[in-house]
Amino acid sequence: MADTQPYVLSASVEGFDQWGWGSGASPFADWPYYQGITAMMAANPRFQVLVANGYYDTQTTMGGAELLATQSGWDPQRVTLRYYDGGHTGYSVAATAQALGNDIRMLISRTAPVQTGQAPR
Length: 121
Hints:
By secondary structure, this protein is α+β, with helices and mostly antiparallel strands. It has helices at about 35-45, 60-70, 95-110; strands at about 50-55, 80-85. The chain starts with about 30 loop residues before the first helix and ends in a 10-residue tail after the last helix.
Protein backbone atom coordinates (compact mmCIF):
# COMPACT_ATOMS: atom_id res chain seq x y z
CA MET A 1 0.00 0.00 0.00
CA ALA A 2 1.63 3.16 -1.15
CA ASP A 3 -0.58 5.41 0.96
CA THR A 4 0.41 4.04 4.39
CA GLN A 5 1.71 6.24 7.17
CA PRO A 6 4.15 5.19 9.88
CA TYR A 7 2.70 4.00 13.17
CA VAL A 8 3.07 6.69 15.82
CA LEU A 9 3.07 5.77 19.50
CA SER A 10 0.83 7.87 21.70
CA ALA A 11 3.07 7.15 24.68
CA SER A 12 6.65 6.08 24.99
CA VAL A 13 7.21 2.37 25.43
CA GLU A 14 9.75 1.56 28.10
CA GLY A 15 11.42 -1.81 28.49
CA PHE A 16 10.47 -4.26 31.16
CA ASP A 17 13.91 -3.86 32.73
CA GLN A 18 12.56 -1.12 34.99
CA TRP A 19 9.49 -3.09 36.04
CA GLY A 20 9.57 -4.08 39.72
CA TRP A 21 9.07 -7.85 39.72
CA GLY A 22 9.90 -8.12 43.41
CA SER A 23 12.72 -10.44 44.37
CA GLY A 24 13.21 -12.00 40.93
CA ALA A 25 12.95 -11.41 37.21
CA SER A 26 9.48 -12.89 36.87
CA PRO A 27 5.90 -11.67 37.14
CA PHE A 28 5.45 -14.51 39.67
CA ALA A 29 8.28 -13.37 41.96
CA ASP A 30 5.85 -11.76 44.39
CA TRP A 31 3.44 -14.73 44.22
CA PRO A 32 5.72 -17.66 45.13
CA TYR A 33 2.91 -20.23 45.44
CA TYR A 34 4.35 -22.09 42.47
CA GLN A 35 7.44 -22.91 44.54
CA GLY A 36 5.30 -25.01 46.87
CA ILE A 37 3.85 -26.86 43.90
CA THR A 38 7.36 -27.44 42.54
CA ALA A 39 8.46 -28.85 45.90
CA MET A 40 5.38 -31.07 46.12
CA MET A 41 5.97 -32.42 42.61
CA ALA A 42 9.53 -33.31 43.59
CA ALA A 43 8.40 -34.97 46.82
CA ASN A 44 5.38 -36.84 45.44
CA PRO A 45 5.63 -38.39 41.97
CA ARG A 46 1.83 -38.92 41.94
CA PHE A 47 1.05 -35.25 42.58
CA GLN A 48 -0.80 -33.57 39.73
CA VAL A 49 -2.07 -30.05 39.10
CA LEU A 50 -5.34 -28.95 37.55
CA VAL A 51 -5.32 -25.31 36.42
CA ALA A 52 -8.90 -24.12 35.88
CA ASN A 53 -9.37 -21.01 33.74
CA GLY A 54 -12.50 -19.00 33.02
CA TYR A 55 -12.62 -17.61 29.49
CA TYR A 56 -13.98 -14.30 30.80
CA ASP A 57 -11.86 -14.02 33.95
CA THR A 58 -10.40 -10.53 34.25
CA GLN A 59 -8.89 -11.15 37.71
CA THR A 60 -6.50 -14.03 37.03
CA THR A 61 -6.00 -14.31 33.32
CA MET A 62 -5.38 -17.46 31.32
CA GLY A 63 -2.12 -16.09 29.95
CA GLY A 64 -0.50 -15.96 33.36
CA ALA A 65 -1.70 -19.46 34.22
CA GLU A 66 -0.49 -20.82 30.88
CA LEU A 67 2.88 -19.12 31.26
CA LEU A 68 3.35 -20.56 34.73
CA ALA A 69 2.23 -24.06 33.74
CA THR A 70 4.44 -24.20 30.65
CA GLN A 71 7.53 -22.36 31.92
CA SER A 72 7.72 -23.64 35.51
CA GLY A 73 9.65 -26.79 34.70
CA TRP A 74 6.75 -28.95 35.90
CA ASP A 75 6.29 -32.27 34.13
CA PRO A 76 3.65 -31.51 31.46
CA GLN A 77 2.23 -35.02 31.95
CA ARG A 78 1.26 -33.97 35.50
CA VAL A 79 -0.32 -30.62 34.62
CA THR A 80 -3.79 -30.21 33.16
CA LEU A 81 -4.97 -26.84 31.83
CA ARG A 82 -8.75 -26.57 31.47
CA TYR A 83 -10.88 -23.73 30.15
CA TYR A 84 -14.47 -23.11 31.17
CA ASP A 85 -17.30 -20.85 30.11
CA GLY A 86 -17.43 -18.20 32.79
CA GLY A 87 -15.32 -15.67 34.61
CA HIS A 88 -13.45 -15.58 37.91
CA THR A 89 -16.26 -17.47 39.64
CA GLY A 90 -17.05 -19.75 36.74
CA TYR A 91 -18.52 -22.33 39.10
CA SER A 92 -21.52 -19.97 39.46
CA VAL A 93 -22.57 -21.10 35.97
CA ALA A 94 -24.29 -24.50 36.38
CA ALA A 95 -22.74 -26.14 33.30
CA THR A 96 -19.29 -24.84 34.25
CA ALA A 97 -19.66 -26.06 37.83
CA GLN A 98 -20.56 -29.51 36.50
CA ALA A 99 -17.59 -29.56 34.09
CA LEU A 100 -15.17 -28.36 36.79
CA GLY A 101 -16.53 -30.94 39.24
CA ASN A 102 -16.05 -33.67 36.63
CA ASP A 103 -12.46 -32.56 36.01
CA ILE A 104 -11.72 -32.55 39.76
CA ARG A 105 -13.21 -36.04 40.15
CA MET A 106 -11.11 -37.24 37.20
CA LEU A 107 -7.95 -35.78 38.76
CA ILE A 108 -8.68 -37.43 42.10
CA SER A 109 -9.44 -40.80 40.54
CA ARG A 110 -6.17 -40.69 38.56
CA THR A 111 -4.05 -39.86 41.60
CA ALA A 112 -5.76 -41.98 44.27
CA PRO A 113 -3.51 -44.75 45.61
CA VAL A 114 -4.55 -48.28 44.76
CA GLN A 115 -5.49 -50.26 47.87
CA THR A 116 -3.90 -53.68 48.32
CA GLY A 117 -6.22 -56.37 46.99
CA GLN A 118 -8.28 -53.93 44.92
CA ALA A 119 -8.17 -53.43 41.20
CA PRO A 120 -7.33 -49.94 39.96
CA ARG A 121 -10.34 -47.85 38.98
